[in-house]
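This part of the workshop introduces the protein records we will be handling. An example says more than a description, so a record of this kind follows.
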Amino acid sequence: LTTSTPENLIAGDYPLVTEPETIAANQVLKRGALLGRNTVTKKLHLCVAAAEDGTENPVAVLVAAMDTTGADADGPVYKTGIFHFSGLEVGAGWDKETLRAALDNAPLFAI
């Protein structure tokens, strides 16, 4: 008997747009990591609500788990979509309500 756990990331039929982006070094990220873009390096990092380098603004969701220990790496990210909050890996300072407010002007949605 084989069992599987259903994915809890994708939450709706909103078009999923993916593209490769540079994920900054020294991170171990799960599928569904909410990412923000550093305004200086333009690389993506786990989005932390209290950051002050641009990474506090969510811009993408990681398509697959990545380990960038030691070096930057290119990886696919969702640029649009509807996602279950419970399926996202979010950095410090986020809860469902604060994330929804932060996504008001983005093509990403958390339910």
